[in-house]
Structure formats: C-alpha cells, structure tokens
Design brief:
This protein has a 5-stranded parallel β-sheet with strand order 1-2-3-4-5, sandwiched between helices. α2 packs parallel to α5 and α10 (about 180-200) packs parallel to α12. With about 425 residues, the chain is α/β, with parallel strands linked by helices. The chain has helices at about 1-15, 25-35, 50, 60-65, 75-80, 100-115, 130-135, 145-160, 170-175, 180-200, 205-210, 225-245, 255-265, 285-305, 310-315, 320-325, 325-330, 345-365, 365-385, 390-395, 400-410; strands at about 40-45, 90-95, 120-125, 165-170, 215.
C-alpha cells in the first residue's frame, strides 16, 4: 500500500505545471479539468499582467511569466482554456484589471462559437480601475472614459451575459499596504460607492449595479476576526443598498481556497461555544469586537466621503493618511505574486511557444475580414457607442487579438495618466 501511494505522489508531482507554464492555456485547462471532478464548481482564473493591461503574448516579459496567470490573446486561446468544460457546469471568476471590455467580448465570442446562450454562464469578469490606480498610480484612460465604457457594458451584458458580474473590488491591496481590518473595509466600500455613483450618473439602475459588484477581501477565513470583518462589511453593504433603494442584495465574494475547503468539508458555524468552569473564554468578546470594528469603519467611511470620495483621495495621494508611513512602499508590490526563479532561456521558450500557437491561429484567419471588423469597432466608438461591446465580440470572431481591440478602444480617448502617475505619489 505504501509503495502504491508513493507511486501516486510521483505521478501527481509530474502533473503539476512548472513555474511559468501557467501562461499556456493548455496547461491551465489541464488544471481546471482536474478540479471539476473534485466538486469545485467555482473556477478562479488568474490572467497574466499583459492581459490585465490589454496586451497580447507578444508583450510578455520575464517578470510577467514569473508572476503567473494564463495568457489570452485570441479567441483560440479561450477555446483551448475551456476545452472539455461546459459553461453550465462552472462559475467563472476573473479579475480583469482596469477594463474588462475585451475579456467580456472574448467570453461572449467563445460562447457563441460553441453554440451556448449567454445566460448559460455565470460568474464574475470584474474590472477594478481604482484598484489598478491605487497600485500602479496610472490608468490607461481617463476615469470618465473607463466609466463610459463600463456603462455600455452594463447595458449590453444585461442581454448577452446577464449572470456575469462586471465590477470586482479588490480590497486585499489595501491590506497588503498596511490597512487594518477597519481601513480595508472602509476602502472597499468607498471604491464600491465610487462605482455606484458613476454608473448611476450614466443611467444604470442601483439594483443592477449592486447585483454586479463583488469583493475580494483578505478576511475570508474562519477566525473570529475574519468573521467579525465579514459581518461588518455585510451590515454596511446592506445599509448602502437600502439607502439607494436596491433592497438587500447578497454580498458576493471572490472564492478563496478557504471557501472551497469549507464547501467541500463543511464549516464550524454549527458549533456552540460554552463557558467552561474556571476558563477565561468570553462568548461576548466577538460581539464587542464586531461592534467596535463597525463604529471605527463607519467613522473612516465618513471621513473618506468628506475628502471627496476614493478617486479624489487616490489622485491627491491622501490614502497614506489612513494606511501609515509604509503604504507607499508596500503599494508597489501589493498585487504582485511571490516570484520564484525562472531562467531566462525558460522564459524565452515559454514565450516562443505562446507566439507559435498564436501564429498558427492567425495565419488561418481572413485578414480582410479582421480589418473590416476592427474598422466597424472604430466607427462604433464614434457613431454608435452602445454597439461597441457587440463589435468587440465580432472582432474576436473575425480573428482579432486582444491588443488589436484595445488599441481601437483607446484610439479616440485621451491618455491622461500614462507616463507621469498621480502627483508623483506612488
């Protein structure tokens, strides 16, 4: 029996991808297909830094490959990524970066190419422009231009991808920069409030916005502190939704490893704490901790609102007042994974393999058809803004790459932040 187990361990070690191979869609597909039989319905897919910045595999650098994440350049890459996976069997979760228009269009094109209706897929393909601004100090477009594009996606997705969330507030970056639980919650809700106000000003109903918002937080464990933080976030979230007349929508989180274990093995929520004779355990401590956290978080939220909201706080470099002296240094690496050694030759090999796969796909495409689809997208940007998401989908079906499409999306927009950052703060 021990010998058999030892052989199984050797086999499983061979199945694990080497560092950097996550950029290959075929490798990530193998991992995803292994997860589904184990009962994991939520598939959280990390995309590489190039994709999050609207670039294809030709823009990959060694550090991007070391950080990990799958590379999605063309529709064929998404086809490879989900080969053998039914959209009705999964809930997809992707953090798309500052913009998600290209990934939404690629996803819709993949569904249409395989004969699936848009409502067959559920999950989150979430943009978080303020999160990107906090970490990198720059945005690819003016915030107003990004919000305009997001509003069009809200209208389009209600018909074409009605079960997919479009906004993902990542508060872990603030925790990584030194935020306390109260500060992290206050920052998360301030970002959500910013998105809510901007989308409402563009005609999107509050209930629709709340249904499309999700959070990626650092407090998703089973400790008493994490439980208190989630309860405070849920209470303030409920107050915010009631204030905007959106009822009491569920609070959606990005799934973490602890959530997956909890679903498969059960949780400890059924246990009842009992005061033992002579013990110092206090069952009321959790309630007092939660109430104190609630009061502190609410006060921080009011302070941030008086300063003009999250965008103004980021633009003027005031966030360090809340997070302490080390915030600026820690922000620089807040979203980066721990890089493991990856040889220069290995990185070149992986990039060459990616470019070879893309080249085989592109060479079979009708170049004239692709140019027509990109031209139609460019015209829609000026004359028919509400039709832009559908033009993106059609461009992917015509063989365009993610960089082709993002270049068209940015062609008519001012690039205010690029190159100089915000007041030199980050």
């Amino acid at each position: 029996m021990k010998k058999q187990r030892y052989a199984e361990d050797i086999h499983s070690s061979w199945e694990k991808p080497r560092r950097g191979e996550e950029i290959l869609p075929v490798v990530t597909n193998r991992r995803l297909r292994q997860q589904i039989p184990d009962g994991q319905r939520v598939l959280k897919i990390a995309v590489d830094p190039a994709v999050r910045h609207g670039q294809g595999a030709d823009a990959l650098e060694r550090l991007d490959i070391m950080e990990g994440g799958v590379s999605l350049t063309t529709l064929q890459d998404m086809q490879t990524l989900f080969c053998g996976i039914q959209p009705t069997d999964i809930s997809l979760q992707i953090q798309a970066g500052a913009e998600n228009a290209a990934l939404l269009g690629m996803t819709a094109a993949w569904l249409r190419a395989n004969g699936y209706a848009g409502e067959s897929l559920q999950g989150i393909i979430g943009a978080d422009p303020l999160g990107v601004l906090a970490v990198e100090g720059t945005l690819p477009l003016l915030p107003a231009a990004i919000y305009d594009l997001l509003a069009r996606e809200f209208i389009w997705a209600e018909k074409h991808l009605p079960r997919v969330g479009l906004l993902a507030v990542d508060s872990r970056i603030y925790q990584a920069a030194g935020a306390s639980p109260a500060q992290e919650i206050a920052c998360a809700l301030a970002v959500a409030q910013e998105y809510l106000g901007e989308m409402q000003r563009r005609g999107i109903a509050a209930a629709r916005i709340f249904s499309c918002l999700s959070f990626a937080c650092s407090f998703q464990g089973d400790s008493s502190e994490d439980l208190a933080a989630r309860q405070v976030l849920r209470r303030l979230w409920s107050e915010m939704s009631m204030m905007h007349g959106a009822g009491n929508p569920p609070l959606r989180f990005f799934a973490e490893a602890t959530d997956i274990v909890r679903r498969n093995a059960g949780s400890c929520s059924h246990l009842r704490w009992v005061r033992l004779p002579g013990s110092g355990f206090d069952p009321g401590r959790g309630r007092r901790q939660r109430d104190a956290l609630f009061r502190e978080t609410r006060q921080l939220g009011q302070d941030m609102e008086q300063l003009g909201g999250m965008l103004r706080i980021l633009e003027r470099g005031m966030l360090t007042r809340f997070l302490g002296r080390g915030a600026r240094r820690r922000f620089q690496n807040a979203c980066a994974a721990k890089h493991l050694p990856l040889g220069i030759l290995e990185a070149r090999r992986l990039k060459s393999r990616r470019l070879a796969d893309i080249g085989e796909y592109v060479i079979d495409m009708d170049e004239a058809e692709k140019r027509r689809a990109l031209a139609a997208l460019s015209i829609a940007m000026v004359k028919e803004p509400e039709g832009v998401p559908s033009r993106i989908e059609q461009a992917f079906l015509s063989g365009a790459s993610i960089s082709d499409i993002v270049i068209q999306l940015h062609a008519e927009q001012p690039d205010f932040y690029a190159g100089h950052g915000l007041n030199g703060v980050y």
